[in-house]
Amino acid sequence: MVALSLICFLSFSSVVVNAAHTSVTNVRSHSSSFGVKSSSQITMLSNSANDYIQREGPLAQAGLLANIGPKGNQASAAAPGIAIASPSTSNPNYMYSWTRDAALVFKVIVDHYARSPAPRDMSLRTLIDSYADAQSKLQEVENPSGNITTGGLGEPKFNIDLTAFTGSWGRPQRDGPGLRATTLIAYANWLLDNSNKTHVNTLWPTIQLDLDYVADNWNKTGFDLWEEVSSSSFWTTAAQHRALRQGAELAKALSKDDLAESYSTQADNALCFLQSYWNPNGSYITSNTGGGRSGIDANSILASIHSFDPSAGCDALTFQPCSDKALSNLKTYVDSFRTIYGINEGIAENEAVATGRYPEDIYMGGNPWYLTTFAVSEQLYDSLFVWDAQGSLQITPVSLSFFQQFSSNVQTGNYEADSQTYGTLTSKIRTFADGFIAVNGNHTPESGSLAEQYGKDDGKPTSARDLTWSYASAITSFLAHDGILPIPWGAQGLQIRRDANGHCISNPGPMSEIVFEVERNTLYGENVYITGSIGQLGDWDPANAVRLEPKNYPSWTVRIEIPASTTFSYKYIVQDQRSGQVTWENDPNHEVASPFKGQSVVLSDTWHD
Ligand SMILES: *[C@@H]1O[C@H](CO)[C@@H](O)[C@H](O)[C@H]1NC(C)=O
Ligand SMILES: *[C@@H]1O[C@H](CO)[C@@H](O)[C@H](O)[C@H]1NC(C)=O
Ligand SMILES: *[C@@H]1O[C@H](CO)[C@@H](O)[C@H](O)[C@H]1NC(C)=O
Ligand SMILES: *[C@@H]1O[C@H](CO)[C@@H](O)[C@H](O)[C@H]1NC(C)=O
Asked: How far is the CA of 232 from the centre of ligand 4 (A)?
């Protein structure tokens, strides 16, 4: 019985970080310095949230473990280390394992394991090892998204016996590999800190497959985390960015410098792209670029808490929970549910309400979700922690309306922790945060079971019962309430380069050089150009093609810097200076992979007549 032997899995009430003015850098290596102090100061503000956390914490832990096979009593048919989404087998049938959900669930387990003092719980270690093992097997399973080398890693869900799910579905979903990498890297980092590099080397091939997938595919569209919209998605980009950033660090620690450089280049580019989701008009994050909705979506709240790095302060670049953009976004998101759910009626505009995935949602009638409502509280607790740690909070024009909910006369500025404004705001924000916990508490049955949703009008649990992700979200929110922090992941001090218009400039990454040569007879006034599938060759646009110079006519040549180790296709064209007429060489396209970083090659091509 896994659940019984793990009774001390989480001890929410006893361990509280001494939050005020703690240096939060290097939390990973100094986790043993977490102090224990009376919780009265932090936790007595809202008794109903507190009571609920005391009662629900152990039940959420048991509920989560019960859904992991085969020892979990709701998942006995699942392969070892497989987390089912829910034991519900009809309306809806969630008896599958989603790569995303499983990674988030195991992140909770790994973080707890890594945080625990020795002697650690070996049954948790066994569970983590079986997760890693099962995921490595799933990577090999050919499925409707492809096989291990042709995109199969983007498959969203599998049968619980490790076979492919072949029904129609919203695929691919490109957040899974990055989330899984982040979970396995958290484990790998713990192993490195605990002198077990041998096992990190065993895990590395699995991690690398996921990171390579992310590095190659982050700039493509896919289905969002709710499996409905195929476009670019904020959550997905944020998860990919984090995975690449951590992957680069781990690769470096394993002396894989070339990989570290390429992950880091793609992390820079994903971070650039992440900025583009901010919608300055509405002061919120447009969660999907497609779908025809407002874009107001729990996607962005979940991304902010998944991106939380206690050492990164309130940096808006990674949409840290206390960043002005993330707080403004939180207000827009929460407010969008005030009038559409009956159970939120009559609640004051600055008090907590039940929230759902997005206001336009119609799935199962469009209801509040436990995990989204918990996520709001978690973002607020994360923020409170950082403000206390840095000893101040800042109000910018972007976050002003968020803070004015709690003090209508408050102005932009920097407020030190000993100021009255700081005291008033943080105390009201803590009450606000506790309110979201209490709202979920009011809709949790006596048994502590957390379904996926509760009715927007009757407040009764609905849709899939015992959703594993609901339990995981309760646990991370309760931990944040108690100031127990996730481990920093490298969000601190990140920077992007901007052009004169303030737009982020992508990092081309390591370059190589190609000398293109081709023979072509031309008439007076005609010149030979090259164009192709990459920006350096003008993206197939003759107007941006690169001109070759004659060299021993009819031979033409040009030397071009190309991103290293990149496969691309191209054609030569002839353009008439006077008429502008373009003559393309015939199919097929030339295709080539550029050499490694810093290297140079000469390609002597034949014009395709
Ligand atoms: C994956 O599919 C490609 C294309 O069909 C094929 O060439 C390759 O051998 C397959 N790889 C595996 C491991 O099955
Ligand atoms: C390293 O970790 C693996 C996986 O948990 C374990 O089997 C092995 O015994 C560990 N090795 C050492 C030296 O601790
Ligand atoms: C790919 O990246 C570029 C540059 O950031 C961006 O303009 C484009 O929208 C991205 N496309 C996708 C599908 O991510
Ligand atoms: C912001 O507003 C401007 C002017 O009204 C409009 O042209 C633009 O499309 C809006 N952008 C977004 C992302 O809504």
From this structure: 18
